[in-house]
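Q: Hi! First time asking for a complex rather than a single chain. Here are the components, and I think there are four in total. Is that enough to go on?
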Amino acid sequence: MRDSELADIRNLPLFRSMTEQNFVSLTRAAYDQTFPPQVKLIEEGAMADFLHIVVEGSVELFAGWRDRETTLAVVRPVSTFILAACIKDAPYLMSARTLEKTRIILVPSVDLRATFRIDPEFAMATISELAMSYRSVVRHAKDLKLRNARERLAAYVLRQSQMANGAVGFVLPIEKRLLASFLGITPESLSRAMKSLQEVGAKVDGQRVIITDRKALEAYAQPTALIDGPEYEGSAGFDLPDARAEAEAIGL
Amino acid sequence: MRDSELADIRNLPLFRSMTEQNFVSLTRAAYDQTFPPQVKLIEEGAMADFLHIVVEGSVELFAGWRDRETTLAVVRPVSTFILAACIKDAPYLMSARTLEKTRIILVPSVDLRATFRIDPEFAMATISELAMSYRSVVRHAKDLKLRNARERLAAYVLRQSQMANGAVGFVLPIEKRLLASFLGITPESLSRAMKSLQEVGAKVDGQRVIITDRKALEAYAQPTALIDGPEYEGSAGFDLPDARAEAEAIGL
DNA sequence: CGAGCGGTTGAGGCATGTCAAGAGTTGTGG
DNA sequence: CCACAACTCTTGACATGCCTCAACCGCTCG
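A: Yes, that's all I need. Here is the structure of the assembled complex.
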């Protein structure tokens, strides 16, 4: 494992505060692997042998039932996934596949469990990480149950904009079919929903999204920290550039 | 706080393995309150001051957006809720209200956080509890995204039956409007879905549910441990009494 | 160049929501 | 204890959001 990644991992909230000794022994027991795109890393139902850490690339977490399939999350560097299954020594509830060429650190669950038994700081960090994951799924469930497809998409657009420091335009970070699955709709429905967003202040052109009327879009999506995440507090307190000027700046 | 409840709480996975001393000081700092039905205990968005423990009665966890509202869980004795918010010292993502006369133990979050800093066993138990909650929400999300309304209802019926030791008949533990909200549909849709379950092996009469053809119902709902919970492993390995005999035994 | 795949569009269908009315039940105050 | 109000649940008629199926376009990559 290269030093630069080691440092990145060490810097994760999960590992930041543990003792150096425990960190070293954890990572020494770990595997560092690079996978091509579309490789299934984890099969739901299988037993959790390793905590996964994405250091490069991206990973889709999804689940199936009968012939259906749905995306539950996309994991980007640097972060961990399926911590909960490792802890409970239980079967994975989700499958995972790489979306692109992806580098993963695999930490054996046994070492993990052994470590937070002896390192209180690591135990605390684990608690914190789990609580965060929990809250994030609760938000996803609320999004699904309280909003319709178009509202979910509108809120997604606003979240992405927020993650781009409030930029009026941005590029979709994932394929549309994947986004559709994440939002819980079909690709066809997503396509139509995107078109219909024009009426409420956003325009989509290929992978590019432009917010043409932020106020209207916010009035429609009514984003809230209790669904859209801690970073998103409506636009209260912000004063972001509006539409066309910046839109043209990035070439539309 | 009465001894019998103290013992029940002490027996919870969360508190079972901590030191007696820490348990005593935690519960001494706690409040014991009894609430009438329909009292709002928690408002989403508010800060998490107390871990709640239901010792008698039942509590609905729900969330709202605009004028909509949805039920995310129903908590029954003896168990805790909103642990995650207490840990992160973050706003609640869900509101909570009593469904009936309900007795709650309130443990101040500050004491909670102080305690698992000094009691490794308690920290471990917290990790385990959180991991369980996380997995349970993930299952809820999968249920919502992978199954349609009727399939969710059918699976719910099978879960309830399972919880009643595989009984062919049981009584719905919650109001239908609440069940509808939990399943993510309207009461009207639930009503029709219940009627339509007759075609796939279950009959509903008022609050009573009878499984008339377990095989058919399972073929339809295709329950799986990865959505319906660890207790539910299809009917593999079981050999349960079938329909009419037991149905009549409970009076239908 | 052709196959395959992602995305879009259209036509049509079905599941679920909405609105309204009525039966049955529960709770409440006189 | 009754009468009335409020509420749950059901049912019907209707609306609509989203899905399904099919065709087509444009790209990418053998």
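A: Residues 235-252 of chain B have pLDDT under 50 and may be disordered. Let me know if you'd like any chain examined more closely.
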